[in-house]
Design goal:
Layout lengths: L1 E4 L7 H10 L3 E6 L5 H6 L3 E4 L5 H7 L5 E4 L10 H18 L4 E5 L13 H12 L5 E7 L1 E2 L6 H8 L2 E3 L8 E4 L1 H14 L5 E6 L2 E3 L1 H11 L7 E3 L2 H10 L4 H15 L5 H5 L10 H14 L5
Parallel strand pairs: 1-2, 1-4, 2-3, 4-5, 5-6, 6-10, 7-9, 8-12
Antiparallel strand pairs: 9-11
Length: 301
C-alpha cells in the first residue's frame, strides 16, 4: 500500500510513519522544511518537500496514493488565520479528488460538529465538510480533545502571577484532555486497517478532569501546591495573548475557542458520543513532563 503522510515528523506523524514502514508499506512524508529530508529518509520513507499552500505540489504528492493522512499544520504567521486554514483545506480536497484517493484519515478536532464559532476548530470542520463532498473517498475524521501540550502555556503565567487560568474552565463540566501518543495510536490503527467507509468520526481522549483538578495536579508536580485556576474574561484573555506576542488573528481565534469551550459547545457532541475507552496517558503522567518543562523555562524578568 502507498501512503502519504502530512505533518512532517511531528508528535503524531513520526510514530505513524514508523509503524507503517514497519508494516511493510510505502510511505511518503510531506514537509515544508528541507532540513527534514535526511531525517525522513533515515526512516526509510520518501521525503516530499513543499508547501501545503501549493495546490500543484499537493496534487503531485498525492498521485498514486492508496491512503492519505491529513492535518492542517500549525501556522502563527498568516494575516488571516481562518482564511489560511480554508486555503489549505481546499488544496487538500482538490488533490484528493483529482487523484481519486480512496481512503483518508483526517486529524480534526473535538468541536468540529459546530462548523463555526470555535476559532481554529472551524478550519478543521471546514476540511471535514470538504472531504464529505468528494465522491468515492472514505474518510475517518479523528476528533481529539484538548491537547495536554496546550497547558505548557500556563508556565509563564505561573512564574509571573502564581496562577493558572484562561477564559474557559466551566466548574460544571470536566475538560477533556488528550496526549499526542494516544492520537498517534488511533491514527495508526485506522491507517493500518482502512476498514472505515463513508464519512465517520472517532473521538480520542486520554483523561477527563476539572480545571481545579488540573491546577492541583500540575501545581503539586512543580512543588508549588495550591496554585489556583482563575477564570478570565474574553477581553482579558485576548489582551493577554496580544501582550504575549500573538498576532490579532491568532488571539481572536483562541479567544473564540475558549469561549466556546466555556459555554459547553465544543465538548457537547463528545459527551453524546463518548468513546468506550480512554487513552493511556493520564494527567498525572503528563504532569511529570510539565514539571520538567517548568524547570527548564527561565523566570521572566
Amino acid at each position: 500500500m502507498k501512503y502519504v503522510i502530512t505533518g512532517s515528523l511531528g508528535h503524531i506523524s513520526r510514530p505513524v510513519v514508523q509503524e507503517l514502514i514497519k508494516a511493510g508499506h510505502e510511505v511518503s512524508v510531506i514537509s515544508s522544511s528541507t532540513n527534514k529530508k535526511a531525517e525522513i529518509e533515515s526512516l526509510k520513507a520518501k521525503a516530499l518537500i513543499g508547501s501545503v499552500e501549493d495546490a500543484g505540489f499537493l496534487t503531485a504528492a498525492f498521485a498514486g496514493a492508496d491512503a492519505v493522512y491529513l492535518m492542517i499544520p500549525p501556522n502563527f504567521a498568516p494575516a488571516d488565520w481562518p482564511a489560511w486554514m480554508r486555503q489549505v483545506a481546499d488544496n487538500y480536497a482538490a488533490a484528493i479528488e483529482k487523484n481519486k484517493v480512496k481512503k483518508v484519515v483526517q486529524l480534526s478536532s473535538i468541536g468540529a460538529h459546530l462548523g463555526q464559532g470555535a476559532g481554529p476548530i472551524d478550519g478543521l470542520a471546514y476540511l471535514e465538510n470538504k472531504l464529505k463532498q468528494i465522491p468515492g473517498t472514505d474518510v475517518k475524521a479523528l476528533r481529539p480533545s484538548y491537547f495536554y501540550y496546550n497547558l505548557f502555556s500556563m508556565i509563564p503565567l505561573i512564574k509571573q502571577a502564581g496562577i493558572m487560568g484562561s477564559n474557559f474552565g466551566n466548574p460544571d463540566e470536566k475538560l477533556v484532555l488528550v496526549h499526542t501518543d494516544d492520537i498517534a495510536e488511533a491514527a495508526m490503527e485506522e491507517l493500518l486497517k482502512l476498514s472505515f467507509t463513508g464519512h465517520s468520526v472517532r473521538y480520542i481522549a486520554s483523561d477527563e478532569r476539572s480545571v481545579s483538578e488540573i491546577a492541583g495536579v500540575l501545581s503539586e508536580a512543580i512543588g508549588k501546591p495550591g496554585i489556583p485556576w482563575v477564570g478570565f474574561t474574553d477581553e482579558q484573555s485576548f489582551g493577554g495573548m496580544l501582550q504575549a506576542g500573538l498576532s490579532q488573528t491568532i488571539a481572536e481565534g483562541y479567544t473564540q475557542m475558549g469561549k466556546s469551550i466555556r459555554e459547553g459547545k465544543v465538548q457537547e457532541d463528545y459527551w453524546k458520543n463518548r468513546p468506550a475507552s480512554l487513552g493511556r496517558v493520564k494527567l498525572e503522567d503528563f504532569a511529570k513532563v510539565f514539571a520538567g518543562a517548568f524547570e527548564a523555562e527561565p523566570a521572566s524578568v
